[in-house]
């Protein structure tokens, strides 16, 4: 018998696909009454984990529990968990309403429930349109409507913001927050922290299948937001001086120091007091996106195009007009596709983590950048692995 808590518990979860360790020893819980973001770059194991929570993939080791039970043991699961793993699985010839009525019939729910969830997700006006003509954002909404049919206690959504326009994102944010505010549970994945930062209360951040942060988003912001970078003639003395004042400094590969959680005046005063010459100092404020990069850096880092096209014509060795453009942010959309609302052109995250040398630069002896986590080497083979409509049926 399930405990009705609305809690998702992931314990020692592992999944290997042959030599690929997609998920490694994941432990976290998702509590009711809040929105939890499950964040990580491409191929970091998010979908695989959600599929294991939903009983669609068997773990190699460990387990996942909803209301104290594996998904497969939940009675009438559509009333407990609504899930969307993929918004592609609609019959193109069916209307939105017919699609939903297939599910109401299968779930033994009243037919009018279909129109109620269409209204909830803002698709009432498209009820009689065939899903084959739906945009990506409309399909996301219809998939969410399907997940809501059983009026579930828990929502599990894999990248639900993909394809939504700015208004759609704002609507999704409001919807998830109000869903959680009624004491229900939301677990929502994304590869863009910035997309989720105003939606989620807690985050579980994964990289290469491993958890690199689990906790309150505000604490993450507060703990790692700023640091002072110092170049000094005598780093060892400055490290010791700072240590005596309770300030921890870290060596960077170029011999300078990174001093988190303080300001340049404090560092300068302490250096002066110790008689240490300072050659340069810079305060670095990391926004959440940069923190995210620092935590998850390097799984599938691409290389930059060989110089952007110039207005006057192609540059020698550069891309041809119409060729690939420099990446802007973590995701780009094809022509005519919706914009990612949270990507502000003036604040694009770097395509590589801060401090990453340009392609071709020999690696420094120590890659540590202060915030960087150490990851074991892992496969570089990203074959996707999503698939199937993870609704309630
Ligand atoms: N069925 C499968 N067979 C082989 N490898 C798989 C399978 N499913 C997933 N993988 C691998 O597991 C790793 C994690 O994939 P997963 O789809 O869980 O990542 P993700 O975090 O959801 O990525 P994305 O942001 O691109 O959706 C990848 O290396 C992927 O290639
Ligand atoms: Mg995925």
From TrEMBL:
GO MF term list: ATP binding; ATP hydrolysis activity
InterPro entries in the cross-refs: AAA+_ATPase, ABC_transporter-like_ATP-bd, ABC_transporter-like_CS, P-loop_NTPase
Keyword Transmembrane helix: no
UniProt name for this protein: ABC-2 type transport system ATP-binding protein
Organism: Actinopolyspora saharensis
Biased composition (Low complexity): 328-346, 367-383
UniProt similarity note: Belongs to the ABC transporter superfamily.
A Pfam family recorded for this sequence: ABC_tran
Keywords of the record: ATP-binding, Nucleotide-binding, Transport
Keyword presence, Signal: no
Region (Disordered): 299-393
Domain ABC transporter span(s) in chain numbering: 8-233
Source species, domain of life: Bacteria
Biased segments, Pro residues type: 306-327, 347-366
Biased composition (Gly residues): 384-393
């Amino acid at each position: 018998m399930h405990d009705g808590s609305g809690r998702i518990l992931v314990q020692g979860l592992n999944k290997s696909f042959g030599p690929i360790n997609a998920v490694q020893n994941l432990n976290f819980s998702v509590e009711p009454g809040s929105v939890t973001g499950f964040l990580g770059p491409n191929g970091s194991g998010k979908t695989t984990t959600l599929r294991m929570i939903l009983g669609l993939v068997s773990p190699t080791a460990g387990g996942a529990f909803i209301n104290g039970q594996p998904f497969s043991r939940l009675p009438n699961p559509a009333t407990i968990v609504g899930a969307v793993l993929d918004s592609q699985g609609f019959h193109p010839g069916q209307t939105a309403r017919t699609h939903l009525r297939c599910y109401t019939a299968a779930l033994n729910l009243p037919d009018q429930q279909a129109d109620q969830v269409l209204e909830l997700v803002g698709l009432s006006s498209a009820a009689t349109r065939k899903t084959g003509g739906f945009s990506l954002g409309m399909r996301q909404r219809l998939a969410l409507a399907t997940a809501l049919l059983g009026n579930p206690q828990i929502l599990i959504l894999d990248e639900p913001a993909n394809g939504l326009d700015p208004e759609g994102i704002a609507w999704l944010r409001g919807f998830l927050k109000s869903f959680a505010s009624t004491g229900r549970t939301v677990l929502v994945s994304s590869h863009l922290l910035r997309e989720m930062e105003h939606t989620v209360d807690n985050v579980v951040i994964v990289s290469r299948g491993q958890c690199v942060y689990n906790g309150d988003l505000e604490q993450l912001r507060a703990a790692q937001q700023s640091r002072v970078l110092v170049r000094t003639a005598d780093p060892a003395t400055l490290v010791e001086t700072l240590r005596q004042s309770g300030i921890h400094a870290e060596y960077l590969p170029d011999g300078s120091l990174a001093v988190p959680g303080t300001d340049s005046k404090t560092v300068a005063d302490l250096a002066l007091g110790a008689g240490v010459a300072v050659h340069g100092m810079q305060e670095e404020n990391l926004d959440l996106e940069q923190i995210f990069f620092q935590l998850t850096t390097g799984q599938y880092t691409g290389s930059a195009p060989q110089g952007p096209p110039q207005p006057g014509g192609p540059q020698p060795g550069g891309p041809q007009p119409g060729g690939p453009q420099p990446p802007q942010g973590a995701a780009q959309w094809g022509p005519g596709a919706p914009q990612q609302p949270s990507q502000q052109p003036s604040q694009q995250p770097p395509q590589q983590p801060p401090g990453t040398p340009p392609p071709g630069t020999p690696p420094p002896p120590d890659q540590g950048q202060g915030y960087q986590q150490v990851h074991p080497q892992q496969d570089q083979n990203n074959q996707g692995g999503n698939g199937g409509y993870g609704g309630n049926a």
